[in-house]
Design a protein that fits this description.
- It contains 3 helices and no strands.
- The chain is mainly alpha-helical and 116 residues long.
- Helix 1 packs across helix 2.
């Protein structure tokens, strides 16, 4: 029987001595120790099925790379949209500044002509 985890022989002997004191026959003690050893081994096998393998990690890595590529693509698109909005706002700002300064200049010229 191939075991992923088992008690060491020293641990088995210590457990056997403890059990021997509490059981009447040696065969009952041996059977009990063997069953405990099997229980520990099966418990470790159950836990080992939850461990990640390289294949699992490769799958997660691939999924993460896809997500990163998607996020990068969305970022590029958002940057392009933002650039368009900034350009549009620059045009509007220049238009309003031109109108403002023309109005101010006309005010100064009008005030100058009225004082003469």
């Amino acid at each position: 029987m191939s075991k992923l985890f088992s008690m060491t022989s020293q641990q088995s002997l210590q457990l056997f001595d403890i059990v021997k004191r509490n059981f009447k026959t040696e065969s009952d003690s041996r059977l009990f120790v063997t069953e405990i050893d099997a229980l520990i081994a099966s418990s470790f096998k159950e836990e080992s099925t939850e461990l990640s393998t390289k294949k699992d990690l490769d799958v997660v890595k691939t999924e993460l790379l896809k997500e990163i590529a998607l996020i990068n693509k969305e970022t590029v698109q958002l940057r392009a949209d933002l650039t368009k909005q900034i350009d549009s706002n620059k045009y509007d700002l220049i238009k309003w500044m031109f109108s403002f300064w023309i109005t101010i200049i006309l005010l100064f010229v009008g005030t100058y002509l009225l004082k003469k």
